[in-house]
Write a structure and sequence with these properties.
372 residues; alpha+beta; paralog of FGE (formylglycine-generating enzyme); four-stranded mixed beta sheet
């Protein structure tokens, strides 16, 4: 009987080791498993915030997101502010990347086959099994447990006082810097219609904040198109979370909406006398350049594709009539921008040919209500 018990015990230990090894092997490199609970399905989350070195691999492989190529309208004025060209500051390869817009963070996440965390996922990963505590370890002061309260009048936001990821103890799940160092973008859009534009949630606080502002429950937001020296991100991986739409499609739609809104504002200003009529065309040219990266004269190329496509779709209509409808032209810009983003390294002629196919595919939507 004793031998039988020993065999059973040994077998149980062996099976436990096998189970543990399989479980460990199933966890993607550099991530940890967050178990399900509180109505949230299990998911993986990065142990560390995305670093400069990791982000450099992304822009090396994706020229669209390199400095000098990325549109200011989707990355902000301070994109990779402290970098020299497309190289991060010396000795800061393992510091979290900052000055990254939500669009840029989401593009990186998609490139590595992941996603930005929802704020619900973020909070579950930060809290672990603790409930209603201020910080990931409890209510004790974050002193020596997080990078915070580092702002002085001499601090540079270009080269901010971040620390290498993993410089402080992890939480119970083995995740580092869930509070402090840099705040982190979340997938969620701010759940209100803000008159100033589109904002997304950020959590965790940064080197800039006080201890009170680092509390897990604190929620902040920031414009989707802008980055800061206090803001970075990490990624999640889950098979059960409904991931949001492709970022390139999202960007093109967002740019279209903003360009259309700015056109309305400029035309209204001119009609009310706030903007001289002599300055209107210059204003419209600037709007197109800012939101597309192209000169407004490029509309001639888009018009030509539109004319040919309409003639192919319905030879009985006068296609030139529709090239003067602003909403149609701005939709054509939206279609073209998505092609431009998705096939960035293709030649312009190839992109225009893809545009023709896109117009044919969406022509019923494009001309809805026009009688075409």
């Amino acid at each position: 009987m004793k031998n039988t018990n020993k065999i059973i015990t040994a077998f149980s230990i062996l099976m436990l080791h096998i189970y543990i090894n399989i479980s460990i092997a199933d966890v993607p490199d550099g991530m940890v498993l967050i178990p399900n609970g509180n109505g949230i399905d299990s998911f993986y989350i990065d142990k560390y915030e995305v670093t400069n070195a990791e982000y450099k691999k992304f822009i090396d492989a994706n020229p669209l997101w390199q400095k000098g190529n990325a549109l200011t309208s989707i990355v902000g004025d301070t994109y990779l502010w402290g970098w020299k060209g497309n190289m991060y500051p010396k000795g800061r390869e393992n510091h979290p990347v900052v000055d990254i817009s939500w669009f840029a963070a989401k593009a990186y996440a998609e490139w590595v086959g992941k996603e930005l965390p929802t704020q619900t996922q973020w909070e579950k990963a930060a809290r672990g099994t603790l409930k209603n505590t201020k910080y990931p370890w409890g209510d004790e002061s974050p002193q020596n447990k997080a990078n915070f309260d580092k702002y002085t009048e001499t601090v540079s936001f270009r080269i901010p006082p971040t620390k290498e990821v993993g410089s402080y103890p992890p939480n119970e799940y083995g995740i580092y810097d869930m509070i402090g160092n840099v705040g982190e973008w979340c997938l969620d859009r701010l759940d209100v219609d803000d008159i100033h534009g589109r904002y997304h949630i950020m959590r965790g606080g940064s080197w800039f904040e006080t201890a009170e502002d680092l509390q897990i429950s604190r929620i902040s937001q920031h414009p989707v198109y802008d980055g800061m020296g206090t803001l970075g991100f990490r990624c999640v991986l889950s098979n059960k979370v409904d991931m949001s739409s492709d970022v390139l499609s999202d960007m093109s739609s967002w740019l279209y909406e903003n360009m259309d809104s700015c056109f309305d504002s400029a035309l209204y200003s001119a009609s009310e006398g706030y903007l001289p009529q002599s300055k209107l065309e210059e204003k419209l040219d600037g709007i197109v350049k800012y939101f597309t990266g192209y000169s407004r004269t490029f509309e001639k190329e888009l018009n030509l594709v539109l004319l040919k496509t309409i003639a192919e779709y319905n030879p009985s209509v006068d296609p030139e009539e529709y090239c003067t409808i602003r909403d149609i032209m701005h939709n054509i810009w939206k279609f073209y921008l998505e092609i431009h983003f998705r096939y960035y390294e293709k030649k312009t002629d190839e992109k225009l040919e893809l545009l023709r196919g896109c117009i044919l595919e969406k022509i019923d939507y494009l001309f809805m209500g026009t009688g075409c």
